[in-house]
User: Which sequence fits this backbone?
């Protein structure tokens, strides 16, 4: 049997696995709160970057104060998020295989997952090029994938597709403002979060949406 068909057979047997994996993206938010709480002089949610939480040094870095004692936890969270994004994409895609656009969208989301793994594997103060590449894939490519999926997921309710499109647009706008260096007095970290947080929130909500859809379908079949 072709590997793609094996995955399809597997997801037909365990349709909730992909959505549940994406719901686990919530660990990313929890890790940030925990790691930020250990900063000796306090973490600036507006001015500091998310990657600063994974920085392995303590002192001034690129004009920002960084000191993250629990940086291993944050870097593990980045890597785990990437695995979640890629694995969930592979499994959930099997329900939308008829659409070429969905293949592109889920493939880009998996690529964004690889980016998140790179962010965690190469903290910002180590191999800068790999970290920047990872951040570009995780944020920029991930945000574009959501916009594509908003148009590709024909079986999803129109209201959720519109919500998905707006999530993608807002996130991509935040990413473009972030890389432009603009902050309008609210801190560059704010725009990085606008590029990142809606994307992760969408993964969680889409996982919940798909889980609820499967639950309703199972109840209809059994009634």
Assistant:
């Amino acid at each position: 049997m072709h590997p793609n068909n094996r995955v399809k057979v597997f997801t037909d047997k365990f349709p909730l696995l992909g959505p549940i994996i994406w719901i686990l993206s919530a660990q990313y938010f929890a890790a940030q709160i925990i790691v930020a709480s250990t900063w000796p002089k306090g973490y600036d949610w507006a001015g500091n970057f998310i990657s600063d939480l994974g920085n392995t040094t303590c002192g001034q870095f690129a004009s920002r104060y960084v000191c993250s004692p629990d940086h291993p936890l944050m870097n593990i969270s980045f890597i785990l998020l990437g695995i979640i994004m890629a694995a969930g994409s592979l499994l959930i895609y099997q329900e939308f295989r008829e659409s070429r656009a969905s293949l592109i969208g889920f493939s880009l989301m998996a690529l964004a997952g690889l980016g998140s793994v790179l962010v965690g594997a190469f903290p910002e103060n180590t191999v800068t090029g790999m970290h920047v590449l990872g951040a570009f894939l995780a944020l920029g490519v991930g945000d574009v994938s959501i916009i594509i999926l908003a148009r590709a997921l024909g079986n999803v309710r129109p209201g959720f597709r519109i919500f998905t499109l707006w999530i993608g647009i807002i996130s991509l706008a935040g990413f473009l403002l972030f890389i432009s260096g603009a902050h309008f007095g609210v801190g560059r970290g704010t725009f990085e979060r606008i590029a990142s947080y809606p994307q992760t929130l969408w993964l969680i909500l889409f996982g919940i949406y798909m889980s609820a859809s499967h639950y309703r379908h199972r109840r209809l079949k059994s009634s």
About this structure: The two ends are 34 Å apart (CA to CA).
